[in-house]
């Protein structure tokens, strides 16, 4: 029988800084169990409870925030990883960590910070996640006293890296800032022979797919319960055409109407698709919850079946396989995401709110820069004092803003900008 040591060698279990054996009695844990515990106990994970998923955390007690979304992604990732044979704790940790780098106001805040980061190499939520895990989250230091973040294993960091390449002109998404290239290079230094430089490990692919699955069904559920989405509207051709346009703009540029209509028909055949507008009764909510559960099962089952058909029944891990996602599943997920995007993210009220959020981020950034570090939290104030140039100081200000929750960003703005 294949053991974890066979699937994850010494290089996969190596940490940036070697750690001595514990001096106090403690339960015997695998390196990946220890990694998971470090992420679970991190301040960055706790902050996600007050950061926007799609609707702001203050909008309704029911809607997901970034923390509850991450917990759901972790559950889906574990369910995918276990039957494939890759380490479920490793996949779960990657899922728990995948949104740590998101700033206040979700992707809207991310775009605003990127607009302000021209002189220091941009801002990207996934690159910020690596920075948090390897530098900003306090846990371990090297021999010179410099923070190495949570000091996670190489395999865990690799699994957390959705885009395993640095910033470049031809790629909008990336996984490491120039300032963090040394740790990124260390993380990728033990790739198996013949592995392409930009290839993701299987566990990262599991995390990414689990994120798509949770995003597609849960944002839809939140939109329906919040009164933003009426699924019966999809019975009308003009409504479907508008949703298809959003799907093409945001997710699948080349998809034609026939393919998207077929995908919608398939997801409507799963479980019991609502035939009447949501009315808030427990029976309606139960039906919606059962639908989302059935959809998750169908999506994960299709990927498991396709991946096993490609690679057989042995345990799969690291660079021994790629997750196989059928085209039909990609289209089905994109349709569900497109419904939420069209009726929630593109609503006039949402667009007006997003503009106010971007303005807040820009003005807060200007105030923090003008303070020359004095308005920063103590940790970031120390980073600012040690920064070598204006570019490095800009990065510290971005780190500070990215660490804020939605509400704390509003509070800081009220204190510094009014």
What does this protein structure show overall?
The chain is mainly α. It has three domains: 4-187, Hypothetical protein af1432 (Orthogonal Bundle); 202-350, no CATH class; 360-416, no CATH class. Helices cover 58% and strands 0% of the residues. It has helices spanning 4-7, 10-13, 31-40, 43-47, 66-84, 88-97, 106-116, 125-136, 154-159, 181-187, 202-225, 237-250, 257-268, 282-311, 327-345, 348-370, 378-386, 390-403, 406-416. Helix 13 (257-268) crosses helix 15.
Write the layout of secondary structure elements.
Blueprint (H helix, E strand, L loop, with lengths): L3 H4 L2 H4 L17 H10 L2 H5 L18 H19 L3 H10 L8 H11 L8 H12 L17 H6 L21 H7 L14 H24 L11 H14 L6 H12 L13 H30 L15 H19 L2 H23 L7 H9 L3 H14 L2 H11 L2
Task: Tell me briefly what this model is.
With 418 residues, this protein is an all-alpha fold.
Q: What does the largest sheet look like?
A: none
Helix content: 55-70%
Structure annotation, total helices: 19
The value of Rg in angstroms is: 22 Å
Shape: globular
Q: What's the CATH first level of the largest domain?
A: Mainly Alpha
Order of helices and strands: HHHHHHHHHHHHHHHHHHH
CATH topology of the largest domain: Hypothetical protein af1432
Class inferred from helices and paired strands: mainly alpha
Give me the CATH superfamily of the largest domain: Hypothetical protein af1432
What's the N-to-C terminus distance? 65 Å
Q: Whole-number average pLDDT?
A: 92
Give the beta-strand count: 0
Number of domains: 3
């Amino acid at each position: 029988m294949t053991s974890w040591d066979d699937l994850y060698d010494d290089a996969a279990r190596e940490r940036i800084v070697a750690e001595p054996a514990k001096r106090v009695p403690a339960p015997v844990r695998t390196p990946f169990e220890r990694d998971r515990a470090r992420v679970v106990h991190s301040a960055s994970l706790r902050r996600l409870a007050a950061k926007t998923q799609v609707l702001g955390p203050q909008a309704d007690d029911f809607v997901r925030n970034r923390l509850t979304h991450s917990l759901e992604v972790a559950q889906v990732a574990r369910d995918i990883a276990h039957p494939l044979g890759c380490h479920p704790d490793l996949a779960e940790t990657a899922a728990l960590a995948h949104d740590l780098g998101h700033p206040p106001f979700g992707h809207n805040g991310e775009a605003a910070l990127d607009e302000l980061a021209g002189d220091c190499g941009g801002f990207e939520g996934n690159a910020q996640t690596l920075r948090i895990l390897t530098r900003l989250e306090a846990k371990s230091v090297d021999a010179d006293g410099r923070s190495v973040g949570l000091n996670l294993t190489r395999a865990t960091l690799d699994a957390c890296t959705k885009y395993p390449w640095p910033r470049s002109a031809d790629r909008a998404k990336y996984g490491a800032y120039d300032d963090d290239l040394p740790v990124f290079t260390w993380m990728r230094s033990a790739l198996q022979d013949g592995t392409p430089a930009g290839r993701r490990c299987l566990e990262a692919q599991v995390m990414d797919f689990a994120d798509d699955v949770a995003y597609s069904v849960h944002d839809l559920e939140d939109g329906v319960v919040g009164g933003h989405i009426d699924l019966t509207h999809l019975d009308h051709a003009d409504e479907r055409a508008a949703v298809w346009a959003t799907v093409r703009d945001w997710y699948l540029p080349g998809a034609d109407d026939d393919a998207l209509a077929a995908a919608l028909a398939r997801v409507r055949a799963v479980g019991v698709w609502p035939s009447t507008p949501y009315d808030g009764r427990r029976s309606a909510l139960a039906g919606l919850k059962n639908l989302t559960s059935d959809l998750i099962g169908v999506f994960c089952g299709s990927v498991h079946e396709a991946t096993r058909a490609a690679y057989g029944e042995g345990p799969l891990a690291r660079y021994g396989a790629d997750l196989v996602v059928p085209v039909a599943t990609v289209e089905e997920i994109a349709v569900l995401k497109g419904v939420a995007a069209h009726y929630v993210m593109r609503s006039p009220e949402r667009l007006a709110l997003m503009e106010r959020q971007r303005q807040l981020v820009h003005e807060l950034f200007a105030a923090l820069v003008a303070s020359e570090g004095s308005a920063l939290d103590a940790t970031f104030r120390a980073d600012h004092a040690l920064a070598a140039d204006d570019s490095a100081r800009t990065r510290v200000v971005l780190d500070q803003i990215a660490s804020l929750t939605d509400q704390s960003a509003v509070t800081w703005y009220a204190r510094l900008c009014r």
